[in-house]
């Protein structure tokens, strides 16, 4: 069961990392008009650490619910 959970986790991480995030970041860059003001890209680049913080918090809270083996 643990192997299945790890497989599902890595599948979801890769789908988000390779499939959803690049078009989302591109859309945000288009909305911020990066072609006109390249310095505004720092706003988009700050989304990655924010997403990591949120994901880490969710994983931590989920790990507290696990039974101790």
Percent of sequence in beta strands: under 5%
Count of helix runs: 3
Helix share bin: over 70%
Tell the overall outline.
Answer: elongated
Briefly say what this structure is.
With 69 residues, the chain is mainly α. It contains three helices and no strands.
Would you give an account of this structure?
With 69 residues, the chain is mainly alpha-helical. The chain has one domain (20-69). 77% of the residues lie in helices and 0% in strands. It has helices at residues 2-31, 41-45, 47-64. The chain is elongated, with a radius of gyration of 16 Å.
Task: Give the helices and strands, then pairings.
Blueprint: H1 2-31, H2 41-45, H3 47-64
Give a quick set of tags describing it:
69 residues, single chain, mainly alpha, 3 helices
């Amino acid at each position: 069961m643990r192997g299945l959970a790890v497989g599902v986790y890595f599948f979801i991480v890769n789908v988000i990392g390779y499939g959803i995030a690049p078009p989302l970041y591109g859309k945000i860059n288009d909305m911020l008009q990066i072609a006109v003001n390249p310095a505004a890209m720092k706003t988009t680049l700050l989304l990655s650490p924010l997403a990591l913080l949120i994901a880490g918090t969710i994983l931590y809270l989920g790990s507290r619910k696990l039974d101790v083996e």
